[in-house]
């Protein structure tokens, strides 16, 4: 006869499965026109309400949540529609968590926005939702300026292509003789063409002394077939390029002003001179970042000013948001996956996460292909072993670990060079070979090279 367990013990065991963590929790399903909000039924007779996306309606929603005693709110990250509601709720002292919609979308039986917000509220009540990373307001503002700058650079690049197209249509092969048509030589020639100059010999006089091609070669490339419609397109492209140049300068000024608002962690220590990156903003980015972080991230091989600024604007300076470096690398999407079933590893591919900081680190890793540093030697060894794509991810993972350690501990990075890395790698290989030989009952003996007679 089967023994029935004590009902009291069963009730005690089952009641501990799902504990109520957030008693005063609300769930919001974000939309482009309406937000649906769900609160506990005990707090209001109408526990589910809808609010329009107008500012006055968002204020009504916030006042209602504060009035009934809500302390924490959870919402899905839907496009950019969540930002006004998030910021308004946060300004009124509510603990707002932003969750990934993919984590809660595969739940059967939810066919409406009302059920979505109720399900979010229920999951958050039991503490089953984890909020996405969002840095403090200072870093958020810095990130917004940095992303705007990237957008402006992308728009400017399209107009450079339009300039090059108009020149090609007139058979002016300027891009064949100069590395950058927006440089000193290229822009001098283009502006002279727009001013009415057509003599190739006169146009070639704008050649800069650093240009590799001679005046004769440049003049030969400037024998063109001028047409009014192509000159018109070139003129408008140059004007648009100049416009975006001014907008980027204004964005750089806003970036510098925002960096000046951060606390000084550098202890007034000056940095040694270093060559400035061409893609970095016009101001002294390296000094500002050192003052904000207390460490020189550009001392890491492959990390230049623009990359360091982009990473700091995305992750901030507070590394306590990630308990360990493994959590940090996993958040970046640079750690190997662990898809395991039945005790067997099915896949160890990294997760596809659209992370801007990870993209910047991957680009930095790609620049180490010919570096004489230890990181460069590591990238080349991983590329010969795994191929270029995986080597880039592995090297970006190593860069992320270095940045985490420097920002968290305030430590400095010292590059020991590729020779030191190769020596350490050789010692590890020999150690593993000796251990394997001993396991198989053999002894590894080094061959002594005989001295020449």
TrEMBL record:
Segments forming domain Transposase IS110-like N-terminal: 26-170
Ranges that cross the membrane: none
InterPro entries: Transp_IS110-like_N, Transpos_IS110, Transposase_20
Domain Transposase IS116/IS110/IS902 C-terminal: 297-380
Top-level taxon of the source organism: Bacteria
Descriptive protein name: IS110 family transposase
Native species: Endozoicomonas gorgoniicola
């Amino acid at each position: 006869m089967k023994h029935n367990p004590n009902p009291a013990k069963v009730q005690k065991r089952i009641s501990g499965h799902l504990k109520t963590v957030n008693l005063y929790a609300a769930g919001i399903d974000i939309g482009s026109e309406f937000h649906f909000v769900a609160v506990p039924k005990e707090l209001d007779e109408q526990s589910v309400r809808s609010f329009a996306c107008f500012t006055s309606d968002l204020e009504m929603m916030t006042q209602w949540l504060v009035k009934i005693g809500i302390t924490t709110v959870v919402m899905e990250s839907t496009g950019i529609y969540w930002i006004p509601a998030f910021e308004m709720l946060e300004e009124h002292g509510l603990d707002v968590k932003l969750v990934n919609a993919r984590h809660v979308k595969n739940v059967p039986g939810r066919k409406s926005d009302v059920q979505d917000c109720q399900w979010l509220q229920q999951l958050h009540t039991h503490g089953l939702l984890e909020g996405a990373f969002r840095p403090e307001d200072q870093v958020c503002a810095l990130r917004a300026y940095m992303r705007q700058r990237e957008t402006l650079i992308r728009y400017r690049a399209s107009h450079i292509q339009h300039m090059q197209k108009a020149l090609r249509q007139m058979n002016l092969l300027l891009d064949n003789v100069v590395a950058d048509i927006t440089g000193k030589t290229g822009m001098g020639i283009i502006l002279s063409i727009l001013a009415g100059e057509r003599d190739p010999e006169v146009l070639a006089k704008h050649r800069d002394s650093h240009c590799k091609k001679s005046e004769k070669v440049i003049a030969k490339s400037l024998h063109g077939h001028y047409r009014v419609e192509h000159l018109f397109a070139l003129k408008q492209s140059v004007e648009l390029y100049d416009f975006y140049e001014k907008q980027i300068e204004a964005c750089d000024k806003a970036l510098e002003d925002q960096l000046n608002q951060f606390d000084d962690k550098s202890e007034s220590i000056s940095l040694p001179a270093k060559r400035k990156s061409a893609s970095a903003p016009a101001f002294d980015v390296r000094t500002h970042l050192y003052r904000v972080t207390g460490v020189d991230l550009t001392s890491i091989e492959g990390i230049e000013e623009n990359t360091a600024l982009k990473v700091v604007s995305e992750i901030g300076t507070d590394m306590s948001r990630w308990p360990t470096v493994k959590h940090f690398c996993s958040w970046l999407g640079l750690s190997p996956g662990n898809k395991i079933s039945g005790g067997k590893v099915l896949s160890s591919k990294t997760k596809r996460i659209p992370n801007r900081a990870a993209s910047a680190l991957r680009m930095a890793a790609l620049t180490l292909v010919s570096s004489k540093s230890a990181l460069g030697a590591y990238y080349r060894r991983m590329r010969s072993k795994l191929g270029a794509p995986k080597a880039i991810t592995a090297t970006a993972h190593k860069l992320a670990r270095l940045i985490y350690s420097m920002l968290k501990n305030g430590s400095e990075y010292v590059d020991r060079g590729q020779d030191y890395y190769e020596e350490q790698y050789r010692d590890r290989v020999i150690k593993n070979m000796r251990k394997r030989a001993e396991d198989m009952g053999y002894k590894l003996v080094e061959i002594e090279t005989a001295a020449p007679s």
